[in-house]
């Protein structure tokens, strides 16, 4: 096993409690050693995110699935792919089996029934040193800083893949709801870079200025415009070609189909906590207007590489709120209060 000097102990934010009452105080834990086919990554920047998914005991209470840093140890069998000093990113999908139908068809490994997930079924990236499956670890390209790479490991690739799932072509209209938020501001940039015409929907002059700066051609302030659908149709004549629903609300999903032209596509991304919320439309609307409703979640290994390339070329840049590992609980409180701007990244040192 190739390695450099690594301490025996490290800092980690270890979750205690559950739900909104949970906290993640920083504790001292042992540094893990990579087994066969694994690498050990020194996490430099970690994205704060609350998935709302119950963690399995195998995580040892360590959440986090958007980390970027440098390889400091290489396990047996991984030497042909990684070396100490390589820059690496860890994602929500920590590993796949590589053998099932979904892994071998070249496009659907996200549906591998034997996948492992960072911060859900294996210890996540809220620690100084995190293990990663060598075959599914992402190589960070030149031109992308660690603090920018972290948000792209999950939020960025989710936004990028949603744009692709919309099937909107260059020159056509894409509506991004919640466009000024953590995922939305990335979707606006990816869509613009892909040649799409973006209608951003959000509330307030600050969000308007941000969305226009990032490349939105039109902005609809839902706090001022009573009939959003009518405004979208006024701008586009027949309606948008696609709508990405990022806001996890019943209202967002109910209104999305009304923004579309015939043949348009709703992309479900936001995950409401209310289990009664449904994505879709009355069957008569779906049938007569031939609407499409699709889901999108994170992205494949190839999708992540493509999403990172947009940043390497200077086309997409996450807007970051920076803190440290000790700030996990503070950001949890800000998120609950709706006051967390952009993507919060934590310096891990």
UniProtKB/TrEMBL annotation:
Cofactor(s) listed in the protein's UniProt record: Zn(2+)
Tell me a Gene Ontology molecular-function term this record carries: alcohol dehydrogenase (NAD+) activity
Membrane-crossing segments per the record: none
Gene3D superfamilies, A to Z = Medium-chain alcohol dehydrogenases, catalytic domain, NAD(P)-binding Rossmann-like Domain
Alphabetized Pfam families for the sequence = ADH_N, ADH_zinc_N
What keywords appear on the UniProt entry?
Metal-binding, NAD, Oxidoreductase, Zinc
A Gene Ontology cellular-component term: cytoplasm
| Superkingdom to which the source organism belongs | Eukaryota
Q: Carries keyword Ribonucleoprotein?
A: no
What EC numbers are recorded for this enzyme? 1.1.1.1
Enoyl reductase (ER) domain mapped to chain residues: 19-346
PROSITE patterns tied to this protein: ADH_ZINC
Q: Where is the segment annotated Disordered?
A: 1-21
Major enzyme class: oxidoreductase
| Family matches, as PANTHER family | ALCOHOL DEHYDROGENASE 1-RELATED (PTHR42940)
What does the similarity note say?
Answer: Belongs to the zinc-containing alcohol dehydrogenase family.
User: What name goes with this protein?
Assistant: alcohol dehydrogenase
């Amino acid at each position: 096993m190739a390695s450099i000097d690594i301490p025996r102990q490290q800092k980690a934010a270890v979750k205690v409690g559950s739900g909104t009452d949970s906290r993640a105080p920083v504790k001292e834990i042992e540094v893990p050693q990579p087994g066969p086919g694994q690498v050990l990554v020194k996490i430099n920047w970690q994205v704060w995110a609350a998935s709302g998914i119950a963690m399995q005991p195998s995580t040892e209470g360590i959440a986090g699935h958007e980390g970027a840093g440098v390889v400091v140890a290489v396990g047996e069998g991984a030497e042909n792919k990684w070396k100490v000093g390589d820059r690496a990113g860890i994602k929500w999908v920590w590993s796949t089996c590589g053998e099932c139908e979904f892994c071998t068809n070249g496009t659907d490994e996200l549906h591998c029934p034997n996948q492992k997930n960072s911060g859900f079924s294996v210890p996540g990236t809220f620690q100084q040193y995190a293990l990663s499956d060598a075959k599914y670890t992402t190589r960070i390209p030149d031109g992308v800083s660690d603090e920018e790479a972290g948000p792209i490991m999950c939020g960025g690739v989710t936004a990028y893949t949603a744009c692709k799932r919309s099937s909107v072509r260059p020159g056509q209209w894409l509506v991004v709801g919640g466009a000024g938020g953590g995922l939305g501001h990335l979707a606006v940039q990816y869509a613009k870079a892909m040649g799409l015409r973006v209608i951003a929907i959000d509330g307030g002059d600050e969000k308007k200025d941000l969305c226009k700066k990032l490349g939105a051609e039109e902005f609809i302030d839902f706090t001022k415009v009573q009939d959003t659908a009518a405004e979208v149709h006024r701008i586009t004549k027949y309606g948008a070609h696609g709508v990405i629903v990022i806001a996890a609300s019943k209202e967002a999903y109910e209104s999305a189909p009304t923004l579309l032209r015939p043949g348009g596509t709703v992309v479900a991304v936001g995950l409401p906590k209310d289990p009664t919320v449904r994505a879709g439309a009355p069957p008569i609307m779906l049938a007569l207007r031939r609407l499409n409703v699709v889901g999108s979640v994170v992205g494949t290994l190839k999708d992540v590489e493509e999403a990172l390339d947009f940043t390497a070329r200077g086309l997409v840049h996450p807007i970051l709120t920076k803190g440290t590992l000790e700030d996990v609980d503070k950001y949890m409180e800000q998120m609950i209060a709706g006051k967390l701007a952009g993507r919060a990244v934590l310096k891990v040192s």
